[in-house]
C-alpha cells in the first residue's frame, strides 16, 4: 500500500494530533479505542476527535473498525479466556 501524500497538505493541527495519538496507541494496542485516542490527543471535545478520525479515514491514513472485540489470555501461549 502506497502512501498518498496529496491529503497531507490539507490536514488541520487537530488531525495531526489525532494521527499522532493513533500512532502512540498502536504501540500497545492492535486496535486503538476511540476513548484512548481522545485521551492521547488532548483535544477539548470528543466531537473534534471524531471529526478528525473521519477525515483521516477518508484519506486512507487510518482504518476504522466498528464493533471490534478482543479476547484476553493469561499468557500468549494459552488459549483465550471465554
Give a brief description.
The protein is built from three helices and no strands.
Describe this structure in words.
- The protein is 41% helix and 0% strand.
- The protein contains 3 helices and no strands.
- It starts with 12 loop residues before the first helix and ends in a 24-residue tail after the last helix.
- α1 crosses α2.
- The model has no long low-confidence stretch (mean pLDDT 83).
- The chain is mainly α and 82 residues long.
DSSP, total strands: 0
Label the overall shape: globular
Following the backbone from N to C, one meets helices and strands in this order, namely HHH
How far the N terminus sits from the C terminus, by CA atoms, comes to 35 Å
Radius of gyration: 15 Å
Average pLDDT taken over every residue: 83
Q: What structural class is derived from the secondary structure elements?
A: mainly alpha
Unreliable spans are: none
- Could you give a short account of the major beta sheet? none
